Amino acid sequence: MYDVFDTTGDRPIPDGGTAGEPCDDCRTSVADALARTVEVTVDRSTVHSHRLCPDCFAEWIDRYEREMQPSRRGGEGSEIIVD
């Protein structure tokens, strides 16, 4: 399964495919088939785009869920609308 190595550090690529562009967070090469792109858009315009490996994507999802949970305190201006 780990028979192909990336060119940046000779680390195995999990899918056994060819090395791709690096993850924007950890800089490890990730094959296109495994890469995930996270885009932040405002009014249909992309504000930020991140290309992530599976591990960094999982961390991003965990962080997003933690930070976007509504607070129990409530109050004015605490409502976040996710579309």
Describe the structure.
- Helices cover 18% and strands 18% of the residues.
- The chain is flat and about 45 Å long.
- It has a domain at 22-69.
- The chain is of the alpha+beta class and 83 residues long.
- The protein contains 1 helix and 2 strands; from the N terminus they run ββα.
- Mean pLDDT is 75; it is low at 1-8.
What tags apply to this protein structure?
single chain, 83 residues, alpha+beta, two-stranded antiparallel ribbon, 1 helix, disordered N terminus
Distance between the termini: 39 Å
The helix-strand sequence is: EEH
Question: Beta fraction of the residues?
Answer: 15-25%
Task: Report the sheet with the most strands, covering strand number, pairing sense and barrel closure.
Answer: 2 strands, antiparallel
Strand order of the largest sheet: 1-2
Residue windows where pLDDT falls under 50 for at least 5 positions: 1-8
Q: Helix share of residues?
A: 10-25%
The total of helices stands at 1
Query: What is the general shape?
Result: flat
Structure, briefly:
This protein is of the alpha+beta class and 83 residues long. The protein contains 1 helix and 2 strands. The protein has a domain at 22-69.
Can you lay out the helices and strands and say which pair or pack?
Blueprint: E1 36-42, E2 45-52, H1 54-68
Antiparallel strand pairs: 1-2
